Amino acid sequence: MTSYEAxxxxxxxxxxxxxxxxxxxxxxxxxxxxxxVHRLQATQAPDLAVRWNCKAGKCGSCSAEVxxxxxxxxxxxxxxxxxxxxxxxxxxxxxxxxxxLVTDVSLNYTKAxxxxxxxxxEGVAPGEYRMAQVDVERxxxxxxxxxxxxxxxxxxxVRDHDENKPAFSGPRFLMRIAExxxxxxxxxxxxxxxxxxxxxxxxxxxxxxxxxxxxEVCPEQIKITDNALIPLKERAADRKxxxxxxxxxxxRRR
Length: 254
Ligand code: SF4
Ligand code: F3S
Ligand code: FES
Fold this sequence. Notes:
five-stranded mixed sheet, metal-binding, two-stranded antiparallel sheet, binds FE3-S4 cluster, 4Fe-4S, 7 strands, binds iron/sulfur cluster, oxidoreductase, alpha+beta
């Protein structure tokens, strides 16, 4: 096993402010950034705050920015950096800092609660639901989400624009609306909720200008923009501008 000393800069501070601190930390073969942060805690900075849980890329807890790029620390191998490269670790920028690398992501839970849940079809009991495999596969991709909120952190609509946060649900939750909108058994429309229209009117879909930064950082490689947001935009536009769709929806509602 080979090891070397890496130069790390880690943001230390709290809601009042903070700065980058320099550390020299041992790195061994096969280690990831989270290993180094843990070694830092164990050897030099016992009060360093960091959130993590699974160390397997599945809990979504260890999100941070490594050399400016939003990443899961447990899935970022040290081998992607050269040995003389400084590795800078900072908290996610879009959410308020609690302390050091830990941010307050509660905005995301507020946004989650604002999306009306699946509406079961009438007259079909749980266990009797039947869906075509193609419909199952379409939404299965979105179910891979581990709620790391890296996409929410990256989207430029809110990254440096706190003022947009109240009106914009962000890619993760617009994707949830898209998933429900594609669900063949979701009966929300029978209760007057057209999900694509609501995404536009109530969840800020119009703020998204398809930059695809959310898709680029998703550790689950979910095609958020191509498979969720663009189809949702198309359906919202259909409902708004296609007179036949509009007429059909009026007749169905009677
Ligand atoms: Fe994370 Fe991807 Fe889910 Fe966004 S969609 S929260 S980036 S797993
Ligand atoms: Fe933001 Fe993703 Fe749209 S980064 S602008 S939600 S494509
Ligand atoms: Fe669970 Fe990194 S510790 S995703």
